[in-house]
Amino acid sequence: MSSRISPLRRRVGEFTLTPEQYALAAYVALGALTVIVMSGAAVRLTGSGLGCPTWPRCYGKIYPPLQTHAVIEFSNRMITIPVSIAAIAAFVLAFRRRPYRRDLMRLSLLLPLGVVAQAVLGGLTVRGALDYGWVMAHFALSMLVLVAAVALAWRATYEPGVRPLSTDRMLTLWARAAVALGALTIFAGTAATAAGPHAGGSPGQKINRLDFDGKGTMDFVIHRHGEIALVFGLVALLVWWLARRSGPADPADPLVRRFSTVTCVLIALQGAVGLDQYETHLPTELVWVHVSLASLTWLSVLLTACAVGRLQPRAVGVSEPRAASRARVSV
To answer: Same structural domain for residues 205 and 326?
Structure first.
């Protein structure tokens, strides 16, 4: 028996991944975590949030009844399975990557932990009858998990010392400000949805919506969301301009230019969709597009900040040659 098992153990022990292969696994996990955010939004916007009023089972069974809302809500739960596999794989495979990097192992651990936390919070959201506080926290946690996934994918793409530190203090600080404003915009967006007609329940179900000013709550929150989004867009445009202001002797990083351009385009699309959905009284399909674009914009602004990189300490730049020689450090 032992002689048959030992070759198998030997093969498992010899199984390793190249940096490129592990980076692919990290990006697969990032894609899976993005997809489940969009599917979760579809559940809420179709009014299927309480399609399965019990958790983890649906009406006490391991399968849903043949009802539209129940099938939609339970399908979103099932999507969690491949997403969990991708997140766990990113963590497990981090140990088999060669050369081994502890920073990737630590970052990858956040993905399965985030999925577990999402599942628990999702159950609490259902048990809490889709109270707006639970729903907002559920989406906010999704965005935080995406931060970890983006950081993992970015670090897995580059070896330590490959990407240079940023010497453009203005660009670096404004790129970080764009991330903060992006987070605030998304938070305001979740508040607008919580005060609107798409609280997640189907007609007839009583859902505790965000309400602090009666019928004026939704208009107030939507307008604040729009104002914050406008500031976010202006800052993103500033980052785009700063990434292009350098001359031929000091060219900007093409990745920064590319990601900042994508961010500006996505924000412009967001603005157009947001105005259209407001004028057309928040149709479900447009709201789903708006939420999906918000997730993609979040990824883009995070990648822009990653491409800009960490700021080179001022003490390093004593002389130009020494600054250049020390600029290439861990990303």
So the answer is: yes
pLDDT in tens, 19-64: 999 999 999 999 999 999 988 887 877 777 677 877 777 887 887 8
- Exposure b/e, 50-88, CB count within 10 A at least 16 = b: bbbeebeebeeeeebeebebbbbbbebbebbeebbebbb
Q: What six digits make up the tokens of 144?
A: 């935080």
Q: How many CB atoms lie under 10 A from the CB of residue 321? A: 8
Q: Give domain status of residue 8, yes or no.
A: no
Residues 166, 310, single domain; the answer is: yes
Q: Where on the phi/psi map is residue 289: left (φ > 0), alpha (ψ -120 to 50), or beta?
A: alpha
Are 158 and 18 within 8 A, CB to CB? no
Three-state DSSP state, 131: coil
Quote the CA–CA distance of 227 and 15 in Å, as a whole number.
52
Model pLDDT for residues 245-261, shown as the tens digit of each residue: 864 445 568 899 999 99
Residue keyed to tokens 């993005």: 34
| Six-digit token string for 145 | 């998990």
Q: Which amino acid would we find at residue 263?
A: T
In this structure, what token pair is assigned to residue 183? Answer: 């987070």
Helix 102-127 and helix 19-45: axis angle, to 10°? 10
How far does Cα 40 stand from its chain's mean position?
13
Specify if 9 maps to a domain.
no
**What does the alpha-carbon distance between residue 211 and residue 230 come to, in Å, rounded to a whole number?**
24
How many whole angstroms separate alpha carbon 294 and alpha carbon 52?
27
